[in-house]
């Protein structure tokens, strides 16, 4: 007869197996406005909000935003963007050098999936391209 299992603890630590926790908390499939001439990556409010306190502090209304470092884990290179709330839409954006440092340098296209996560120990974002755009993406 199977009994309800309780977590086993030893010296204050659980010995239960924990499933993999995906570090890439912020993922986005790029669209044409993200890779176009607007020079910004738009992140929906619900996607970016968990990062706001960590990055911008509690003053969400900062009009200037905050310059943040971004470590590209794929190319092992450091970049700098501005992270801020985008006016009336209440979404968030990465801007300033987005097109030069990411779209052009990494040849990003509509359909690529990119990801970010905040590293509180290094006080910076980490960035990666998770999936490349496929020909199927361009045929729609």
Question: Can you tell me about this structure?
Answer:
- Residues 28-129 form the TF-B3 domain.
- Pfam families: B3.
- It is found in: Nucleus.
- This is TF-B3 domain-containing protein.
- By secondary structure, the chain is an alpha+beta fold.
- The chain has one domain (21-138): DNA-binding pseudobarrel domain (At1g16640 B3 domain).
- It has four helices and nine strands; from the N terminus they run βββαβαβββαββα.
- The strands form two sheets. It has a seven-stranded mixed beta sheet. Strands 1-2 form a two-stranded antiparallel sheet.
- A hairpin with a 4-residue loop joins strand 5 and strand 6.
- Mean pLDDT is 80; it is low at 135-140.
Kindly list the characteristics that best describe this protein.
4 helices, 140 residues, transcription, alpha+beta, At1g16640 B3 domain, seven-stranded mixed β-sheet, two-stranded antiparallel sheet, B3_DNA-bd
Draw up the topology in text.
Layout: E1 9-10, E2 13-14, E3 26-29, H1 32-35, E4 40-43, H2 45-56, E5 66-72, E6 77-86, E7 91-95, H3 98-104, E8 113-119, E9 124-131, H4 135-138
Parallel strand pairs: 5-9
Antiparallel strand pairs: 1-2, 3-8, 4-7, 5-6, 6-7, 8-9
What is the strand arrangement across the widest sheet?
3-8-9-5-6-7-4
* Major sheet details: 7 strands, mixed
CATH topology name, in short, is At1g16640 B3 domain
Strand content: 35-45%
CATH homologous superfamily label = DNA-binding pseudobarrel domain
**General form:** globular
What integer value in Å does the Rg equal?
19 Å
